[in-house]
Amino acid sequence: MALELLYDDARVEVHQVVVGPVENNVNIIRCKRTGEGLLIDAANEHELLLELCQRFGVTNVVETHGHWDHIQAVEPLREAGIAVAVTEQDADMLPSYDLTIPDDSVITVGDLLLTTIATPGHTKGSMCFQLQGTDLLFTGDTLFPGGPGNTFGDSQAFVQILQSIEERLFKQFGPSMVVLPGHGKATTLGEERPHFDDWAARGW
Predict the structure, then answer these.
(1) Does residue 18 sit in helix, strand or coil?
(2) Which candidate among 6, 27, 108, 110 keeps its CA 20 to 30 Å from the CA of 153?
(3) What are phi and psi of 146, to 5 degrees?
(4) Strands 112-118, 127-131: pairing kind
(5) What is the CA radius of gyration of the chain?
(6) Are 16 and 40 a contacting pair, CB within 8 Å?
(7) How far apart are CA 117 and CA 119, in angstroms?
(8) Which residue spans within 141-192 are E strands per DSSP?
(9) pLDDT tens-digit profile, the chain (204 residues)
(10) Which of 57, 58, 2, 54 is nearest to 25 (CA)?
């Protein structure tokens, strides 16, 4: 799958590649001034991801959550000296990791700042990331075009993911915020917000 330049301004470039059997989106954020990069979700196709990490100066990986399809390249990237971070709640889902990510913290990528937003529901430790100074929100499997991520028939988790989306995403950010999910195409919070009650009634 071809590498796509999703976003480009004077400070930052964001690239995306789709990998693996369930077509995971892997995003790379790069600070233009320092050349430092960060990769979101070491999902699969580790040889390709290692090549991209080298090209874009990636020294750190952050995981949106611990499901198998998002972590297949974790160990090869760690073996190459790239640090992997995940929430404490999902840490035991990974084969190995280096750091845990607290909620409402800031990750630096050169001059860039990435805010962490805990959004439990899809997994206990699901995390979204917002790139400050842009309208880019990386939602993993928490929010997609058309609704929340799968909660696998768990009614409590479904309530939780709806609360996460409403309280941590819809109430915190404006309608122009671009949602970059873990699979599939992008959307915006403005496009998705009017359908919230329908999702709740639908029950999945």
Answers:
(1) strand
(2) 27
(3) 100, 0
(4) antiparallel
(5) 16
(6) no
(7) 6
(8) 143-144, 147-148, 178-181, 187-188
(9) 689 999 999 999 999 999 999 999 999 999 999 999 999 999 999 999 999 999 999 999 999 999 999 999 999 999 999 999 999 999 999 999 999 999 999 999 999 999 999 999 999 999 999 999 999 999 999 999 999 999 999 999 999 999 999 999 999 999 999 999 999 999 999 999 999 999 999 987
(10) 2
- What's the residue count for the chain? 204
The answer to whether the beta carbons of residues 142 and 128 sit under 8 Å apart is yes
CATH class of 4-202: alpha beta
Model pTM score: 0.97
* Burial class of residue 76, CB neighbours in 10 A (0-12, 13-18, 19+): middle
Q: Cα separation of 66 and 56, whole Å?
A: 24
Q: Which two tokens stand for residue 144?
A: 């997609």
CB of 129 closer than 8 Å to CB of 117: yes
Cα separation of 74 and 162, whole Å? 29
Which two three-digit tokens encode residue 75? 């160990």
